[in-house]
Amino acid sequence: MNVGRNIGVGRGWVGFLFAVSAGVAGFGCNAILGIDKDYQLGGEAGSGGTLPGECSVVSDCESTVLECQTATACDNGTCVFENASDGTPLSTQSLGDCAEEVCDGNGGTRKQALESDVPNDGKVCTIDTCNGMTAVHTVQTSVPCYTGASGTQGVGVCVGGTQACDTEGNATGACVGEVVPTAEICASPFDEDCNGSVNDNCPCTPGEALKCYDGPPSTEGVGMCMGGMQFCNADGTGFGPCAGQVLPQTEECDGLMDNDCDGLPDLSDGCECVGAVEDKCYSGPPGTSMNLPCQGGTKMCQPNGKYGVCVVKSRLRRRSVVLGPMRVATALRAVQDCRAGANGLATVIRSLADRWQLTRPATST
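Given the sequence above, the corresponding structure tokens read:
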């Protein structure tokens, strides 16, 4: 640390007498006191701070460069300064000139080489360096290149390429050899979209198997219904059909299986009958089935779970009447109204016998 001290006197009579004496002798005050008229505390000659005898308080003293020189006192009209050490960088610098400005130790400044203060000429094909305080721009024949999204180079399959340079330091032509992100190929084991994850955007992995069922969820595992399996296709873009599943179907009244998978047995699920069963039937008016010649029949269960028509196995259509040894054939028409009952039928038979003049044969004596 250098301390500069301007030596001078006040502005009183003593100073006046010195000045007059020096003038008479042909010398100035500075010459009498041995002070160079270009003397400056800090900095270069002739451009410095406060002159001698110009301060009454320390605030009257002005530094040439505030960061390199600080006024510490005003001693009998003379400014006393403290200088920053040589090489102290200034807070404000010019960028890209291969140099930095520092204090020179005398209150002034100087420049020194700074290799890290590299100038940028804005051309991708030049290497910008400093040779001392001189900028150097070296043109390359080719430079690395990459046109993919930031952060993807070197991730997954993505790599950079090279691009040719012209004599002016400008890149020209395509980026040869680069691999940029593409859509994920699910059938490969690589990270094509270069996000750090393999097959992360794929619906499935080729060969992957999943359980499946396309019917109503409440029917799976009920009756004959059951789920199947589906497999991811070879390119990993989706699953194939659900193989092996059994879906609800129309109920079959066979008494064997719950075809519509609703959990109900056939006879509670719209079926009148189940299997090859036979049941009695009568389609006439109620209360007449026991009145001859009316009679009931039978009905058979059909495959659709409904009974067929009512079939009469035997019906009275003709009857032989034997009177004694003589056999007489007589036609007996079907009685339409069965409500007459047995008594009515006997009346009809007698009427027919009279009509055909049927008589009992005479007995021999």
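The first helix runs from residue 13 to 25. Try to locate this feature in the token string yourself.
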